[in-house]
Amino acid sequence: MRATTTSLSIALFLTCLAGCGYASGATCVDWVRFETPQEKFDQAELVIVGSGTERDGTESIYDAEAHSYRMDVAEVLKGELPSGTVRVSSMPVTCTAGSQYPEGDPLDGASDVLIFANRHEGEWFTLTPFDGVLPYSEDIASSLIR
């Protein structure tokens, strides 16, 4: 009985790992959720008001491919940028069997948005797949405590 229970436990553990991609080398990220725009602002190195100009390849992160975009920057709310455009990658959901963006890529066609980003190995990425982009609102932008 003990051997059967142990075998079943190991089988379930390996199934969970395979389902999360560990068997293929994928990294499964448990994403933090931010309740307010201020929490996003506090965690981001860069916060901008911008709009997407064009898709600009991909960047690899956590064993996934993130879509990258050239963004026109209307205003920098936090951080510093050397020019009027910046390349930002849309953090993908990791460890999924389907699309890297099951709810759609938040930067695809982005127009007048607030972008909350951090650097990873020299590249800008949205905070998380869920909390890196908000539709632009002057009320939200002006409420952020800088």
| Structural category | alpha+beta
* Rg (CA only): 19 Å
- The CATH level-2 architecture of the largest domain is identified as Beta Barrel
Largest β sheet strand count, sense and barrel closure: 5 strands, mixed, barrel
Overall helicity: 10-25%
**Terminus-to-terminus distance:** 61 Å
Percent strand = 35-45%
List the uncertain runs.
2-24
Our count of helices gives 3
What is the average of the pLDDT values? 83
Q: What sequence of helices (H) and strands (E) makes up the elements?
A: HHEEEEEEH
Top-tier CATH class of the largest domain: Mainly Beta
Shape field: globular
Trace the largest sheet across and list its strands. 1-2-3-5-4
CATH fold assignment of the largest domain: OB fold (Dihydrolipoamide Acetyltransferase, E2P)
**Overall number of strands:** 6
Number of domains: 2
Describe the secondary structure blueprint for this structure.
Blueprint: H1 2-19, H2 37-43, E1 46-61, E2 64-78, E3 85-90, E4 113-120, E5 123-126, E6 133-135, H3 138-143
Parallel strand pairs: 3-5
Antiparallel strand pairs: 1-2, 1-4, 2-3, 4-5, 4-6
Textual characterization of the structure:
With 146 residues, this protein is α+β, with helices and mostly antiparallel strands. It folds into two domains: 30 residues; 113 residues, OB fold (Dihydrolipoamide Acetyltransferase, E2P) (Beta Barrel). It has a five-stranded mixed beta barrel. A hairpin with a 2-residue loop joins strand 4 and strand 5. 26% of the residues are buried. The N terminus is likely disordered.
